[in-house]
C-alpha cells in the first residue's frame, strides 16, 4: 500500500512473490487479483476474504462429493471430450437438466452433508469445544 491509499496492479506485481506465498497459504489461485486494476486496501482485503471464503466452500463441497454427483448426471462423452453432452444442449435444455436431473441428484448428498454437520455440532456441544475434528 502506498501513500495514496491504493494498491495498484504494478505494486501487486512488484510484491508478486509475497502475494503468491500468501495466496498459496490460503489455498487461493495465483491469478486471484490479476486484471483488477488499482484498488483501495479495503477493497483488496474484501476481495481476498471473499475469494478465501469461496475456496473454503469449494474444498468442503469437494469432500461432499458434489462434483462426483454432478458428473454422474452428465451422460455420454468420451475420454477426450467428457462434457460433450453439454455442447449438444440448448439453454432451455441445460436449464431443465439442471433443475430436474442435477438438482434431484444433489438433494440426497446435501441431506447427508447436513446430517454430518448436525452430528458434528452435537458432538462439539457434548465435549464443550469448538475444535472437534470430524
Describe the structure.
- With 134 residues, the chain is mainly alpha-helical.
- The chain contains six helices and two strands, in the order E-H-H-E-H-H-H-H.
- The protein has a two-stranded antiparallel ribbon.
- The radius of gyration is 21 Å and the shape is flat.
Summarize the topology:
Elements (H helix, E strand, L loop, with lengths): L5 E2 L1 H6 L1 H10 L13 E2 H23 L2 H8 L10 H4 L3 H37 L7
Antiparallel strand pairs: 1-2
Helix pairs in contact: 4-6
Quick overview:
This protein has 134 residues and is mostly helical. It has helices spanning 9-14, 16-25, 41-63, 66-73, 84-87, 91-127; strands spanning 6-7, 39-40.
Number of helices: 6
What characteristic shape results from the CA principal axes?
Answer: flat
Indicate the radius of gyration in whole angstroms: 21 Å
- How are strands sequenced across the largest beta sheet? 1-2
Computed structural class? mainly alpha
How many β strands by DSSP?
2
